[in-house]
C-alpha cells in the first residue's frame, strides 16, 4: 500500500487519475491479473453458513454500497450512510459482498476507487448492529463474513484506491488496508479505534496492517501510541 496525503478536496480525483496512470505499466497489470480472483478465506468447513449470516445481517438495514462502473474501466464504490457517518449497517455488509462479486466479474475493469459519501469515509461497523449481535458466535460469523469480502476486494484483479476524505475509523480503517493505495484529503484520519471497545480488528485489518507497515509500526498504531497517520503507510 502506498499513501499520498494532504490532497485538497478538489484535486482528489485528479490525484487518483495520475496515480492510476503511473500504475498502468505492463508489469503492474500482469501482477494484478496474477492475483487470485476468488479470495475466500472461510467457507462451510470453518462452520460458516453464508446464507444464515446474510439473513442475520439483513435484519439490520440502512444505507447502501453503491457501485458506478464507468466506460473508462474505472469504478467508483461509495459507502453511503451519511446519517451514521457511513457506518456499515448489516445490509451494507451484504451489499459490499455483492459489489465485490460484481467487480470480480467485470472483465473491462481496470481500477476501483473506494470512498465515502458526504465528506467522510466510514465510522466502521454500525454500533447498533454490533450491540445486537454481540454474542461470540454471531460476532465471529460477522467477522468471518467481512474478512471474506475484504480479502476478495484486496485480491481483485484491479488497482484499488481508498480515497479518504474525513474519518476512517474501526472497520473503516480496516477497509482502507484492503486497498492498494490510499489518497488522503488534508485533515483526514485513519484510526483503529477498536481498542477503546476492547476489540481486536475483526475484519482482517490487523494482519493486513502488519504486512503494510511492519509489526512494530502496526503494534504502535493498534495500541494507539500513534494514530494511523499517512507517514506510516508510506513505509515500504
Ligand atoms: C470489527 C469492526 C469494529 C468497528 O468498526 S466498531 C465501530 C468503530 N467506530 C466507532 O466507534 C465510531 C463511533 N463514532 C464516533 O466516534 C463519532 O460519531 C464520529 C465518527 C467521530 C463522528 O463524530 P461527530 O462528527 O461528532 O458526529 P456524531 O457523533 O454526532 O455522529 C453523527 C451520527 O452518526 C452516528 N454514528 C456515528 N458513527 C456510528 C457508528 N459507528 N455506528 C452507528 N452510528 C454511528 C451517531 O450516533 C450520530 O447519530 P445521531 O445523529 O445521534 O442519531
Short description:
Its EC number is 4.1.1.94. It is built from ten helices and eight strands.
Describe the biggest sheet? 6 strands, mixed
Using DSSP, what is the number of strands?
8
Residue windows where pLDDT falls under 50 for at least 5 positions: none
Query: What small molecules does the structure contain?
Result: Butyryl Coenzyme A
Radius of gyration, CA atoms, in whole angstroms: 17 Å
* Spatial arrangement of strands, main beta sheet: 1-7-5-4-3-2
| SSE run | EHHHEEHEHHEEHEEHHH
Q: State the secondary-structure class.
A: alpha/beta
Strand content: 15-25%
Percent helix: 40-55%
Please give the count of helices.
10
N-to-C terminal Cα separation, in Å? 8 Å
Basic shape: globular
Mean pLDDT: 87
EC number: 4.1.1.94
Pfam families: ECH_1
InterPro entries: ClpP/crotonase-like_dom_sf, Enoyl-CoA_hyd/isom_CS, Enoyl-CoA_hydra/iso
Catalytic activity: (S)-methylmalonyl-CoA + H(+) = propanoyl-CoA + CO2; (2S)-ethylmalonyl-CoA + H(+) = butanoyl-CoA + CO2; (2R)-ethylmalonyl-CoA + H(+) = butanoyl-CoA + CO2
